[in-house]
Specification:
- The protein has twelve helices and 19 strands.
- By secondary structure, it is of the alpha+beta class.
- The chain has two domains: 5-115 and 153-309, no CATH class; 317-432, 2-Layer Sandwich (Alpha-Beta Plaits).
- The strands form three sheets. Strands 11-12-8-7-1-2-3-6-4-19 form a ten-stranded mixed sheet, with helices on both faces. Strands 5, 14, 15, 16, 17 and 18 form a six-stranded antiparallel sheet that branches.
- Helix 1 runs parallel beside helix 3 (60-76), helix 3 (60-76) crosses helix 4 (89-102) and helix 6 (157-164) packs across helix 7 (179-189).
- The longest helix has 18 residues, at 335-352.
């Protein structure tokens, strides 16, 4: 009988449910648990943390999770793969060793380094990698002095290498999101670097599960059909050697897995469906066969892949100015009309003191925030929330915006309330700069202790 590899994902982003991975571990029936913490802005935050305190720069939530579930992980022999290492995998590894010592447990921790190229940008440019913006063609020099993070989406074979060396917990930085699931498949089945169809299958499996419960009823368009959102189950893929797999969830959990919940996730962040580029292969999403087996089980098979490109994608973050946002509740007769008048009053007062902004936004929550200009507002609602926002490269101007909201409560129209939490302060805007770098210029290092 073919071996079935069971890979679950308990974290779709840093801030996802802290109970989901605990549920998956204690529910059992899985071989590997993946945990995805990173987004482009997350890496920038981690870099800033590390600059202030060299022992930080990773997802501390992951360390707290391991502290909570380590005995269960060891008892059930579940191995964990995560990008919680952020920009400081060695520091995260040290924190995990302290947790292991606390539990008097012996665990092997693998760390993967080489994706963080913030300190190598000038070197790489000199070596012939311009790191130009993939969307605009601009040279990196235009924002070089404002770069806050730069990370390469490295391939999944480094994860497999760590597992081959016996790692029970694998800490990576910016591997690809699907790679967290593909790595264990490469390790378990011995897939090679030119097994394009198999690598494509593993990439699709990882893509389906990378956002956690988004394929098992979360963020589902037919939300009313989902039972027990409170106890929603996170996804498990059951993978065979030939690359075919079943998407499911643990018995007794809420949510649902059906053809449509899986299809919605398949389309998530999809560019060209015939040429989905990953560090490991090129995937043709139009080739796959999808079969709803019922009872929260969907089989995907017949996935075709093609040779990988000779470049890695680079995620670069940079400072792009400042923003601030605040809101007021406007109530009483003609509330919508009054709220629009209040917005005009505030923007005019700011203009009168020399504060014009590169961009402003006025929204009426419940009226035109999500779908401006599409639907007519309800007739004379009794109240509406006015949200104002501004953006500019001048921090002082953005801070000045925050001082103009509260006064209108007493020096503007009647029926204004809901201002709380203090004056809105300027917040840094972190923008995204996608680029490419030749694979030959990137070296990864895998250490298992």
């Amino acid at each position: 009988m073919d071996r079935v590899l069971r890979v679950a994902n308990g974290q779709g982003f840093w801030g996802d449910s802290v109970e989901a991975p605990v549920q998956l571990i204690r529910g059992g029936g899985i071989d590997f648990l993946t945990m995805d913490y990173l987004a482009e802005v997350t890496l920038s935050i981690m870099q800033r943390q590390k600059l202030k305190r060299p022992e930080t720069g990773y997802a501390r939530d992951f360390v707290e999770l391991v502290d909570r579930v380590l005995p269960d992980l060891l008892e059930k022999k579940i191995r964990v793969i995560s990008n919680a290492g952020g920009v400081n995998a060695p520091a995260c590894s040290k924190a995990l060793k302290d947790v292991a010592a606390k539990h008097k447990a012996d665990i092997r921790i693998g760390t993967i380094e080489g994706d963080d190229i913030l300190h190598r940008l000038d070197e790489l440019i000199a070596a012939g990698a311009p790191l130009a913006n993939m969307e605009t063609g601009e040279e990196l020099a235009t924002i070089r002095d404002r770069v806050t993070a730069a990370n390469v989406y490295i391939d999944s074979f480094c994860i497999a290498e760590a597992l081959d060396k016996g790692a029970q917990i694998v800490l990576a930085g910016r591997v690809s999101d699907p790679g967290l699931a593909l790595g264990p498949m490469i390790h378990a089945f011995g897939w090679g670097r030119e097994d394009w169809d198999l690598l494509a299958a593993g990439t699709v499996a990882g893509h389906v599960t990378e956002c956690g419960a988004q394929c098992s009823g979360g963020n589902y368009s037919r939300w009313w059909q989902v039972k027990d959102y409170a106890g929603i189950g996170y996804p498990v893929v059951e993978v065979l050697q030939d690359g075919s797999f079943v998407v499911t969830k643990q018995p007794g959990t809420g949510g649902l897995v059906n053809r449509w919940s899986v299809c919605e996730q398949l389309l998530y962040e999809m560019g060209d469906p015939q040429h989905y580029i990953s560090p490991d292969t090129m995937v043709d999403f139009t080739s796959l066969s999808l079969e709803d087996l019922g009872k929260d089980r969907v089989r995907i098979s017949k996935i075709k892949g093609a040779p990988a490109t000779d470049s890695y994608k680079v995620s670069i973050s940079y400072l792009a100015g400042y923003k601030a946002s605040g809101q007021l509740t406007v109530c009483g007769p003609r509330a919508v009309e009054k709220a629009r008048a209040v917005a005009g009053i505030i923007w005019k007062r700011l203009e009168d003191v020399g504060c014009s902004y590169e961009e402003t936004n006025s929204e009426l929550l419940g009226i035109d925030s999500c779908h401006p200009g599409i639907a007519a507002p309800p007739a004379d609602p009794p109240e509406v929330v006015l949200r104002l926002s501004c953006r500019d490269t001048d921090r002082a101007k953005v801070d000045r915006f925050g001082k103009e909201l509260a006064p209108v409560i007493t020096n503007g129209p009647s029926g204004i309330t809901g201002f709380a939490g203090g004056r809105p302060k300027a917040q840094e805007i972190v923008a995204y700069w996608p680029a490419l770098v030749p694979k030959e210029l990137i070296q990864t290092r895998v250490t298992v202790e």
